[in-house]
Amino acid sequence: MNYCTVICDIKASRQMDNREEIQYKIIDMLKKANEIFKDIIISPFLITLGDEWQGLLSYPCDYERVINFFKVSIPNINFYTGIGIGDVEIHNFELTVNQLDGPSFYRAREALLYAKKNNLPRVILFDGWNNI
Fold it and tell me: Which of 31, 35, 51, 116 could make an SS bond with 10 (beta carbons 3.0 to 4.6 A apart)?
């Protein structure tokens, strides 16, 4: 079964003067996203590293709606997005997203790293193909 892992990371966050304020905005944004999109969320979005957040969605789904929600919620803040489509190896969805594992997560991480390296806003990887 396929899932959609979404990982987002703010661009150049270490250079931001208001980093703490942005962190709180992200926390509030994720709480709202987890409620608004609960019908497609398998494992809720949460901050995983500093200013990086991730979540696991059902697939197929309208992940564009989720990403657009993030853009509207934190306007004037640019972020990279890595999306991985694939299976997961741990199916205990009572665990938090950072405790899960599998191809969907590997692809999302690879997509995020590619996006950062090539300064692209979004990269999607799906079992042998990618959409940049």
Answer: 51
CA distance 46 to 52: 9
pLDDT tens digits for 24-69?
999 999 999 999 999 999 999 999 988 899 999 999 999 999 999 9
Which alpha helices (DSSP H) does the chain contain, by range?
19-36, 63-73, 103-117
Number of domains in the chain: 1
State how far the alpha carbon of 70 is from the alpha carbons of 6, 16, 33, 110, in Å: 12, 18, 8, 21
CA distance 75 to 118: 22
Q: Check which CATH number belongs to the domain holding 58 and give it.
A: 3.30.70.270
Residue 45: domain span:
3-131
Query: Which pTM was predicted?
Result: 0.92
